[in-house]
Amino acid sequence: MSKKAIFFISSVCILIITISSCKEKGSSFAIIGKVNNQNGNLIYLQYEGKIDSSRISNNSFKFKGSVGVPTEALIKINKSSNTPWIVGSVFMLENSEIVLELNYTKTSKKGQIREDLRVEHIIGSNTQKRLDRYRGDLDTNFFQEKNDSLKGEALYDILENFLMENPKLEISGKQLSFFAGKYKHFLDREKTEFLISILDTLYQKKEVMDNLNLLLKQRKYLDIGNKAPSFKLKNIDGEIFDIDQNLSDFTLIDFWAPWCMPCRSQNPEFVKLYKRYKSKGVEIISISIDEDLKAWKKAVEKDSMTWVNLSDSNKMVADKYYMYQIPLTILTDNNGKIIGKDLDVFAYDNKRSFDTILDSLVVK
Fold it and tell me: At what angle do helices 206-221 and 170-182 cross, to 10 degrees?
């Protein structure tokens, strides 16, 4: 064991004794923390819509308060550089005796100052322990697993165990929403519905539950084999475009927005894909949900999007597609029947890449 770890554990024992004399266990929280190189500055604790501050003295700070249920808290300092990110770190706060050790760093690269504040050690938050164990399981048994079948089983088991253990945590709903959306090919609709049923919805954010409900509807009504919803929208020249009158052998419908960085990163790949498959009966229809028409037109030109571009600024068509996140991609045949969705636009060698499915469908 390192000297630093021994010193920290010894300090924890003393600090816990100190905290115990300050509060009734279980009814409130008491935090005593350590942070380097910040003496005299204020440190802030943000949770449940509240924000508290403490003056750092002798590299130490204290907070007291209470939370209704265990929740994510942000601990941060005022940044001295002009970097756009918050100099802070998130941890799970609960009504208990908590000891934090934070590490502040300040580095310079190419003349730009970067500050960082991270939680190095935390003792006293059982919720944080469960979250750390859950993340460790994901890293070891899901992200590092190469076999898709085993990967899918692992994701379901890990999520089920975590949600069963933490149905009231807001982060439980957030995690399910993220994985059920990004990795939906590993979780069928029945499994997703069961995982949602585990959540205590009284403690989940409305937007998270709305997203999960939209996700279920999208999976039900936009499943492979169903007909994609019809729509009429104005193109970049202000003319009405009717999808039913313009179906190609294969039509790729892409919902995006100029401010969406994952969407913009796809556009150069769409340019390559369009050049490769346009002569083989493939058409791309990009639908922007941005309300700023000038930004939309500028992005279309900048990204060399030479295919069909439509504006859905009021999101009426997006609602038909139960859109809960972008980018959203749907591939249809010449009858408008869905033959692919959520496929990977990047040329990765997997079953879900556009290249793989198009190469299996188009006439060579």
Answer: 30
d(CA 328, CA 74): 31
* Residue tagged 């519905």 (tokens): 193
Please state, in angstroms and rounded to a whole number, the distance separating the CA atoms of residues 212 and 190: 13
pLDDT tens digits for range 244-282: 999 999 999 999 999 999 999 999 999 999 999 999 999
CATH of 232-361, one of 3.40.50.720, 3.20.20.140, 3.40.30.10, 3.40.50.10420: 3.40.30.10
Residue (of 150, 134, 145, 117) closest to 33 by Cα position: 117
pLDDT of res. 6: 47
**Contact between 343 and 351 (Cβ < 8 Å):** no
* pLDDT tens per residue across span 15-36: 444 444 444 446 999 999 999 9
Going by their DSSP bridges, the two strands 29-35 and 97-109 should be labelled as: parallel
Nearest to 91 by CA among 133, 45, 141: 45
**What DSSP string runs through 256-285?**
E-TT-HHHHHHHHHHHHHHHHHGGGTEEEE
Q: Are 151 and 142 in contact (CB under 8 A)?
A: yes
| C-beta separation of 125 from 98 below 8 A | yes
Helix or strand (DSSP H, E) at 131:
helix 126-137
274 vs 306: CA distance, rounded Å = 9
Contact 196, 217 (CB under 8 A): no
Q: Where are the alpha helices (DSSP H) in 166-305?
A: 170-182, 189-198, 206-221, 261-277, 293-302
Whether 298 and 334 have beta carbons less than 8 Å apart is answered as no
3-state secondary structure of 337: strand
In a 13 Å sphere around the CA of 210, the CA atoms on its Cβ side amount to 7
Domain 3-123 coded CATH 2.60.40.10: yes
